[in-house]
């Protein structure tokens, strides 16, 4: 397996820029890599002026997510009511993000890391621009114009998919918000403020079921690729990915939700 120095060299060869902004989705399972080594290699490639960002989503804090349904599967109504009353409120400093993988949790818990304040779709980051990019995340906007994704897009960020595919590329959600007419909206629920205090808000219906296909249709000259432990590592400019996803979605998405 590559060590920290070899990984950093590979990231630079892939196109990670010193001083750049990089949003990373990663799966380290079966790779024989330590999360701290991957984090540090990414920071080495970005240099002291660069900023590393990861999704730190917390879908467990929901009544309708797959994560919540898995946690409550098989419970009686009374048992689920007790469970709901015990769910702690989202806290950007302490709420874990286990479904995002060990690298995301590693970045989130790194001293000095910054995390945005959305109860479902926060992002965490390390670097000199983390506070600027992840601040002011509207708690009623998952991943749209009032979220860090729009700031990352405007700042020229890149997206790195480390041993995962485009099916988890959350940047594509920004394209959903930019569709015309706008997608349908729905209610979301989360615990906010106090333990067991469930509140609701409205936002667009998010759908990621076609993200893998969208990524497969991206022009190949937009994506650079390497391999680590038998799986692909992909790099693409966020602006290219979002703009191309928007073009694709506009061709078939309307009327599906």
Automatic annotation (TrEMBL):
PANTHER family: AMINOGLYCOSIDE N3-ACETYLTRANSFERASE (PTHR11104), SPBETA PROPHAGE-DERIVED AMINOGLYCOSIDE N(3')-ACETYLTRANSFERASE-LIKE PROTEIN YOKD (PTHR11104:SF0)
Lineage: Bacteria, Bacillati, Actinomycetota, Actinomycetes, Kitasatosporales
GO biological process: response to antibiotic
Family, per entry: Belongs to the antibiotic N-acetyltransferase family.
Protein name in the entry: AAC(3) family N-acetyltransferase
Domain of life: Bacteria
Entry annotated with the keyword Acyltransferase: yes
Keywords: Acyltransferase, Transferase
UniProt KW Transferase keyword: yes
Any Pfam family matching the protein: Antibiotic_NAT
GO MF terms, alphabetically ordered: N-acetyltransferase activity
